[in-house]
Amino acid sequence: MKLERTFRFRGRRDYLHSTSLFDDIRKIRGADARNIDMRFHRRTAHQVSYTDTPPSADDTVVAEWSDDAGKLYVIERDDRIHEHESYDEGALADLLVVDGSPLENIEVLEHPHEKFRVIIKDGVVCKNTLLS
Fold first, then answer.
1. Cα dihedral 54→43→123→31 (10° resolution)
2. Where are the domains of the chain?
3. pTM summary value
4. What's the distance, CA 127 to chain centroid?
């Protein structure tokens, strides 16, 4: 089996994000994949292929995935990634650091000026009160 995949950079990164790979392989393998072990070997700015055939000495291995169904190798291709995407299309922020736990008290989200300690949008830090 060999699958060629097409990715975009996430946020302002200039390398393929590890969660992009993890999420994509998880979709391929199915939600009931068990005993997952994913090892990252290097960053890449190139598109990748997945294969269950062990790589040759000429292949650049980006990551390896193994689960109960077997092993997948993530191999770098020659074509570079050129496009970017936000972490979540339509999201108001890429990352929020909140003073408090919304799982325990949802009201912390009702006071963004007081409770939002860090806001990152499109890869840019818009607010950071952790350092002050």
1. 20
2. 2-85, 95-128
3. 0.63
4. 23
